[in-house]
């Protein structure tokens, strides 16, 4: 039983993120050493060499154990250093996945301490070393991205050169009310002159490699709001409390007909009671000021009054119904965009889909297949987003196929001029080199500890989808589909995009304001090259005081 429990846990630790900015460049490969040892449990297969070296084999495992402990200590120190460097970028980090890595590292360490067999102990420590290595490289990646983006926006807003931040061979798209325009480096640099003279209000970055948010917010600055669509069962009814007693009615709408079947007013305490329903209904408030606090809450009450600064309000987006009420006993929880309902309206939708080629990943070549599309979508009645977007996406993403190919062999480059300058000004220089972990590929007769199959996990791929949905007033909803993240889990998730490029992929929203008080927002999806330059970018700029919201999918529930 113990062996099965450990094996199951080990398989959950399949976090494969090859680090960026190692030795001054973004590492493209696995860069690991492999040591293969075979130990048979069958006495009939015991060789003369093995019977005469039992004690020396034990000594060998103990030696390996000492090496791994030293390696883990080195990684721990380097992780602390990367964290200190990240602070210097001026960003704050919100990352459940990194917290999960820390927790799983502690569990592996305790598991190793309790293990008496030196061989099993070494295998556990090897997985611990691999996990710490991936956390280290990702922390360095986050610090590097923070330093690059801070430097970029300082140059862009002050009029300093930004050409060095873009690859000469990059592919860039600019999205406006006129559609999608493909640009070269000179073209994107010219577009970005729009932000000159604007002071940063906030920069918010979603990093797909770790499911992390990086946020830099000027004191008093305005940030992007985050929205969710909540599905809950109403078998026993459902209660929730309004913010500040707005008094607006909650409308329950039949998505099949678009008709309001019930209006619910709050009681004198500001509490709404949704009675049991016998069919799926969507809920929305008449008042745009109706806001609530993120789940999780208990199954019967969704209070909307925040209890502290870490519990911000969530205000519904004008594009997506905030509530879905089902005739079930299910607990409340957020849904991805595909399962949410688009509200009636005419929207301009930009879609970006990205996936790596699995075959080429196995051959150590990273081929990113991206498609960008843009068109108008009319919604007559509340419609499940998947139904509305599937055919739409197939139609609009065929005109702009993009491939971005980079080799995935271990990085041997020197520090690029861009990274040397940015890291020098931010950190005092590039990151130090760290020893690369070994992969102990062990064939065991019968457990008891089954190590993680790191090689297999390095060659998996998934799909990123980003929707930008803008209504007729200019209000924009960004919906992130990231199948690598499964919200709510306490273990690191193995379902990540391939390690060879995931660390370089992120979504960014810059908010700025000029001396006249005019606001500007720049929304960009970026993929970096190994030298830190932007190799792919799709961007749009919104002016005036339009609302920009982000809807992050609780991935793992997305059905494709």
The count of helical stretches stands at: 11
Spatial strand arrangement across the major sheet: 2-6-5-27-28-29-3-4
- Determine Rg (CA atoms, Å): 26 Å
Average pLDDT reading: 76
User: What is the 3D form?
Assistant: globular
Q: Spans of 5+ residues with little confidence (pLDDT < 50)?
A: 1-54, 294-309, 555-560
- Largest beta-sheet characterization: 8 strands, mixed
Give the total of beta strands. 30
Q: How much strand content do the residues show? A: 25-35%
Terminal CA distance: 36 Å
Q: Structural class, judged by helices and strands?
A: alpha+beta
How are the SSEs ordered, and which strands pair?
Elements: H1 2-11, E1 33-38, H2 48-52, H3 54-88, E2 92-94, H4 96-114, H5 118-158, E3 166-176, E4 179-183, H6 185-191, E5 199-207, E6 212-217, E7 225-226, E8 229-233, E9 238-241, E10 250-253, E11 260-264, E12 271-274, E13 281-285, E14 292-293, E15 301-303, E16 313-314, E17 323-326, E18 333-335, E19 341-342, E20 345-356, H7 358-362, E21 365-379, E22 383-384, H8 385-396, E23 401-407, H9 417-427, E24 438-443, H10 454-458, E25 463-470, E26 476-482, H11 499-502, E27 505-513, E28 519-528, E29 534-543, E30 548-552
Parallel strand pairs: 1-24, 3-29, 7-30, 8-17, 9-15, 26-30
Antiparallel strand pairs: 2-6, 3-4, 5-6, 5-27, 8-18, 9-12, 10-11, 10-13, 13-17, 14-16, 19-22, 20-21, 20-25, 21-23, 25-26, 27-28, 28-29
Helix pairs in contact: 3-5, 4-5, 5-9
